[in-house]
Amino acid sequence: MHSMESSGGPYLNTAAVASPVGVARLLQVAFGCTTFSLVAHQGGFSAAYGTFCMFVWCFCFAVTIFIITCEFTRLHSCLSISWGNFTAAFAMLATLMSITAAVIYPLYFAQFGCYSISCKVRDFRIAASVFAGLLFIAYAVEVFLTRAKPGQVTSYMATVSGLLKIVQAFVACIIFGALVNDSQYSNYVATQWCVAVYSFCFVVTVVVVAFNVTGRTAMLRCPFERFVVIYTFVAILMYVSAAVIWPVFCFDSKYGSPWRPYQCSQGKCPWDSQLVIAIFTYVNLVLYIVDLAYSQRIRFVSHP
Question: How many whole angstroms separate alpha carbon 39 and alpha carbon 127?
Answer without folding.
Answer: 9
